[in-house]
Amino acid sequence: MIQSSIQRRTFHPAVAAPGFTLIELLAVITIIGVLAALVLAAVGKARRMAYTAREISAAKQLMVAYLTYPIDNRDRLLAGKDDSEAKYDETGQGFGGEYGGGDMVSASWVHAIRPYLGNRFINTLYVNEQAFYYQELVSRHGTAGAAYHLSLFTTFGMNMDGVGGLAGGSMKEQVAVRRVNEATLPSGLIVFTSANGRNTADPKDIRAGYFRLEAPVPKWPSKNLTEQPADISMDEKYGYVSFRNSGKAVVAFLDGHVKLYTCAELRDMRLWAEEARATDNPKWRPKAIL
Length: 290
Description:
Elements: H1 2-5, H2 22-68, H3 102-107, H4 109-112, H5 129-150, E1 156-158, E2 190-194, H6 216-219, H7 234-237, E3 248-253, E4 258-262, H8 274-278
Antiparallel strand pairs: 1-2, 2-3, 3-4
């Protein structure tokens, strides 16, 4: 029969595809959030490490320049301030009356060391965020107008009371070594560290560095900094030393090596002054300045 030859089709109801429950969705979202946080943390850490690496590299270049200077100057180390010699800007132009703060600019170690840096401040004395400050100043004011500010707000500050001295009669120069061979332990005498001198009058000012340092005794507060403080008045209180590198400062020594130091480690006055090293006194105090 015709009907018997026709195969009957059996229809089955469609089965819904399995889906995620609310708990499963929440679990996935949580996992994604955790992974994103880990990635962001890793990126932030990598960025900080890159910043520190650039600052260390710049400090090493700075020390090559610093130790080259005595070769041309009868073994005399570069003084923190010395107006007895001519200094020039990046174009080779001598500092004259058109430069704001002319006397201070012409006496600054910053411009004295410039030729030994290949007349280049970017990535040597102005690193990371400070490089943008340099570019902003020069583009806004030109070489002449920027020279004074560029002599002040460098990424690194000099231990000018301990190394090189202040030419011109300051009592501080009596404790500063003037030649490498005057140091008992060149590998233990600070020349430069990371520095901060943020503008207290304008907290949004991007200036971060400072050209000089002040040793921990007798100035620094007793608390050891473990990070860069939000309170910008702390810059001056801690001798302008900056601990912006994960709670550490980049420190360059007279023998040319560079290392990271904590605030607690930098309290040893033997790192700052030859007299402290010679007497093996980590708590040495400088004599009164007349």
